[in-house]
Amino acid sequence: MNKPSIIETANATYRCIHGAGIATYPEYKYNPFGGYDPSILSRYTNLIEVQKMQAEYEEKLLGTFKEKAETSWKDLPVIIVKGGKEKKGLEGWVLHEQQSLHATGKALLVFDPKNQRDCWAADHAVKLRVPAWDEYEMVLLKEISESQRLAPLYKRGMRVALKSDPSVQGVLMYDCSLPNWSKDGLHQCRVQWFANADKTSNQEYFLPQLLQILN
Amino acid sequence: MDNTIYKALKEILPLKGSLQAPEGRREILKHLGQEDTHWGYYNNGSLRFPNLVSQTIARLREEGLVSTKGWTWMWNQVSPPQDVSPPQAMVVEETDDLFDDLEEEDVSFLYDLTDEMTLAAVAAATPCFGKYLERDPACKGCPLANFCGQKNQAIKAQKAARSALNAENQAILSNLGVNLKTIKANIPKTALMQEATIIVAKCDIDCVCSGVRLYAGENVVFVPQWGILHKIVYESLIS
């Protein structure tokens, strides 16, 4: 079976059961089946064939990522494989890259949109990974657009808390109008945490990581 | 061994109590009214009678009727049992007498097998339930025999019905030009055959394995991780 016949069979089966075709997402960047959800396809047609096609696609995709990483890591999905406990295993996307100040290679800012975590990692400490077919659009782009929508609302002096731990509260030091380093992604803002918070007193955070508190 | 000597000794000895061997031989001859030559001679010319008497005494001694001391034969006073029969394991009638007041079911089995739940529990704990064999003596004595037999009959009936259905299905499949062997060889390993569901087709579709056209409104089988199958093809595949 080739890719079109897999899609056709699954679609026909789905239509026979539900009376309508399978929903498609053709705009999704990393979808092996031209917008069809692989988990739905595998339920309605031969799973082995779907998995085979998916494996072929993933291999090809990784090759493309490797080629791209030679020039720039930006917007590539990675997993951190070296480093401390907090960093290791973090799966995210590279938001920003810059020449490392103290070592050779590049320093990458990796953001995990699922768990709202970010960290810096050296390029030799990360490994390219294959993202879930809807991860880029449904998770990363969603967070970025949310960040852009909220940015004008975050003003100097506003009380904020961390999403991951709402007991950690502080005050915004500047208006959150400036975008991050690359000026095209997540907005960042500097927060002065209250004395009782177990955090470094003055830090920069991506907007999705913060939770607005009403004054 | 001569039975006339044996009988004569059994009659003489109880009366005499004890006898010396030569005297005893004379008494036997006298009792029988015969000469010692009547029993003949051995090849070496000696008489057979004294030897036959010795053998008979040995037999009586084994039976416990006579004891010997040197050449003296003594009759034992204890009378032997009248009827020597082989020992018996158990007399069933006596047991019945003991439990006359009890009903037969209570004696044979503790549980009330007419209760469905009890029967189900006992049957679940009996691995051979449903494998009743009329000629098996173990089955005859089993308190579940009746139920087991019924179950066995039901299983047989099911099998017969299934084989009849299979034959019918085979005929239909051959009419449709479906080769079941080829299909069986090509079933995907990941197909969830046991999770299949019967659905009413909402549009026309081809059977994923046989290629037979299935029409909207028809009952078809959906096998997850494989596709839509003709109902008879599916039934034949799982049987």
3D structure, described in words:
- The complex is a heterodimer of chains A (215) and B (239).
- Chain A has four helices and ten strands.
- Chain A is of the alpha+beta class.
- The termini of chain A are far apart.
- With 239 residues, chain B is of the alpha+beta class.
- Chain B has helices at 3-16, 21-32, 49-62, 92-98, 104-108, 116-124, 137-140, 145-176, 180-185, 231-238, and strands at residues 18-20, 66-69, 72-75, 197-200, 205-206, 213-214, 219-223, 227-230.
- Chain B has a three-stranded antiparallel sheet. In chain B, strands 4-7-8 form a three-stranded antiparallel sheet. Chain B has a two-stranded antiparallel sheet with strand order 5-6.
- The two termini of chain B are 76 Å apart.
- Chains A and B meet through α1 and α2 of A and β5 of B.
Give a concise summary.
The complex is a heterodimer of chains A (215) and B (239). Chain A has four helices and ten strands; from the N terminus they run αααβββββαβββββ.
Strand order of the largest sheet of chain A: 4-3-2-1-5
Total beta strands of chain B: 8
Task: For the largest sheet of chain B, list the strands in their spatial order.
Answer: 1-3-2
Query: How helix-rich are the residues of chain B, as a percent range?
Result: 40-55%
Mean pLDDT of chain B: 82
Order of helices and strands of chain A: HHHEEEEEHEEEEE
Q: Rg of chain A, please?
A: 21 Å
Give the oligomeric state: heterodimer
Q: Looking at the structure, what is the overall shape of chain B?
A: rod-shaped
- The helicity of chain A comes to 25-40%
Which pair has the most extensive contact? Answer: A-B, 15 and 19 residues
How is the main sheet of chain B built? Answer: 3 strands, antiparallel
Tell me about the biggest sheet of chain A? Answer: 5 strands, antiparallel
